[in-house]
Amino acid sequence: MNRSPDTMSSDDALIEAIRIEKRYRQVRAVDGVSLAIGRGSCFGLLGPNGAGKTTLIEIIEDIIAPTAGTVLYKGRPRSFQFRQEVGIMFQQTALLSFLTVAETLETFGRLYDSTDDVETLIRTCHLEDVKDRPNDKISGGQKQRLLLALALLNRPELVFLDEPSTGLDPQARHNLWNIIRRVKEQGKTIVLTTHYMEEAEKLCDDIAIMDKGKVIARGAPEKLIHEHCRRATLAVPKDRIGANRHKFSGFSRERGDKILFRTEDVNGFIQKLLAEGVDLSGVNLTTPNLEDVFLKLTGRSLRE
């Protein structure tokens, strides 16, 4: 069972970042971030553009060095063992166009001491129909599944997924999510960065939201929603409530032919509607989600 980040000890963590800083002249891209990622969990790192999440992940992956701070893998500084036991699915990876999907997996496999069976990976990532097709003749969804297969090639304990479903249509995205769930069921630890809040909410056990180089919130998706966006919205048709509007607290605004109310006590509000004889047909309920939390904490203004 995965522990919450609040109760996790160093012994529970597969990888741990301790007081990480990264400075570029006057810019502090990562500002004293500490976090531990539990074994077998799917950890999501979210943040607006420029929040520092990519820099932090690249430090944890050992791609760039921190200005200050330490990263521990299995309680020790990272070594050659880390590089053999980690898999990374980059957002963009250049593939040789003249190699087939199967040949690409076989070629990359020569970089590791030990690898998974190529045919098994092809089945796991649903690449059977394109395994003999050149890399430049596969679709976007097929390429993302190939990149995931490459990240799993060395049977990693820790898998980094950088924006895995960017650019995919809904069908391809959900297909990829199902594969990621099966990977997690194998006991692997997953670190996911994404701009899709639905993706993070559906896949992650634990989420950290970064902004301006710091972690500003951390917890399970449902915990973050409960802490930061408790109020649901009920849209009641005007002709159902009429002059009784003043009897209900939580009035938000009018939208078209409906009146919007916001409340933390949905059941109590509905009981009040029924007690006042309001017909519930046409009443719509919208509950808060992770996107609401993200926008509340990081703001709604556009960042480039």
TrEMBL record:
Listed GO MF terms: ATP binding; ATP hydrolysis activity
Keywords attached to this entry: ATP-binding, Nodulation, Nucleotide-binding, Transport
Residue ranges of domain ABC transporter in the record: 15-237
Claim: ATP-binding is one of the keywords in the record: yes
SUPFAM superfamilies: P-loop containing nucleoside triphosphate hydrolases
The keyword Transport belongs to this UniProt entry's keyword annotation: yes
Secretion signal span: none
Superkingdom of source: Bacteria
SMART domains to which the protein is assigned, alphabetical: AAA
Family to which this protein belongs: Belongs to the ABC transporter superfamily.
Protein name per Swiss-Prot or TrEMBL: ABC transporter ATP-binding protein
